[in-house]
């Protein structure tokens, strides 16, 4: 029997270990070093790197690609630090702890985000972490940068920012969810598939899986902001509503949102139904995402 | 006779053309698109991409690598947008125009910087721009990310930020200048050499050239802030002094700074003295950097 909890805890331990070993504090200004480590070790679930590794293994990969998977956590963490800034979402708490700029100041928080984003690409262009084809690493960098730049996450975040307080709009919320959240999650699994030398047919399926769970993940997040508890969220509930955020429940209502999330998880599971038992972690993670909302 | 002005204007035109053609406004939120283009076309001299191309040609490269060279301008521009933010240097003017956040607001300015940094790596991982070996592109990405992350530019910027108002300190100013300015300039020429398949001996010389002119460039910048005119600088002179910045003249005095800049240019010229006439642009650019201060 496959044990998701054990699987996640094992992969998470490796990601945590890589993150802790990555920085050389003797050649980084100490406040910057503290700032990047603070956010990298603030209790993240490591969902994206674990998805990357699970996808790599589902596609037959046999090496330890923890460093490359961890680079995705660097990108995710940078995005959280910048999202929390006063000029953006202006959040004081993240996972129950003060946000980076609350502890280190805005200037250092901006630099910590910039540094993490840059270090992600430094890790991904280091060919010594595993025996992988440089042209696969180039493809991974292309995939991750395309999903997180102005044509991806940054574009989604910009529309999110300027849509605060606007009337519910289906096209806008779909653009935001796709770009701000789903593309990086999809890129995480696609990167794993690319590193495993998956063929284009497999990569297409993995991409469909990734976009579907990515959209479901964001819809569930929107639902939890309404129905969750402050304790579980690590920040006050109802903050989307308070900020006038364009959320899925705001546009479609809460019941339709739950239904949509469930449908998306079904689509994700169908996309990888022909994969063998090595895809069990991917399947269980998809089911876990929907369970969070119930 | 080699004409530097003509050389620069020809290369600059190509970089400008690439930048203008790069973005697809139909799939980027319009305010983000305006914001990135605003700063990318705000009158930059394109020094870093031109250095990259000049180094590529000096090492025997024959293709048009404008896109890869332009990616370095994306990185440079992101760093300027973030440096100008209120939480950082809090500058209202850059090259005589209002800074990005003054026009588009802080949130969009942060995202524009994030987007430009990410798009730089998207360009560098696109193998269709020229016929280059993917493993050379990986090396270029490794070089540029190492020079601009927490072990490079971001680290230098962090120390610059926390050293404001502190007593003059030789080690600190040298760390800041090396990391904040010289490493990216050095990485620009190294990237050109790597793309041209230069051997390790050539790359070492190019790196020495790059670090030397990079340090000289920053020292000249410090001097101009004292001796230049507001018109020439595009911002009020004396702003380093006003902010209590750790500058070279503050630590060593203005005459010693001028002498040091000249020495560094001599070191740069000696480093590439065995290169043939294809290195003339590199030599003339080095001389041009020192001329700015006199």
Automatic annotation (TrEMBL), chains A, B:
Pfam families in the record: polyprenyl_synt
Q: Which UniProt keywords apply?
A: Isoprene biosynthesis, Magnesium, Metal-binding, Transferase
UniProt similarity note: Belongs to the FPP/GGPP synthase family.
- Write the signal peptide boundaries: none
User: Which organism does this sequence originate in?
Assistant: Thermodesulfovibrio aggregans
GO cellular component terms given for this protein: cytoplasm
Q: Which CDD domains is this protein grouped with?
A: Trans_IPPS_HT
Name listed for the protein in its UniProt record: Geranylgeranyl diphosphate synthase, type II
Biological processes per GO annotation: terpenoid biosynthetic process
Q: Name one GO molecular function term.
A: prenyltransferase activity
| InterPro entries hit by this protein | Isoprenoid_synthase_dom_sf (IPR008949), Polyprenyl_synt (IPR000092), Polyprenyl_synt_CS (IPR033749), Prenyl_diphosphate_synthase (IPR053378)
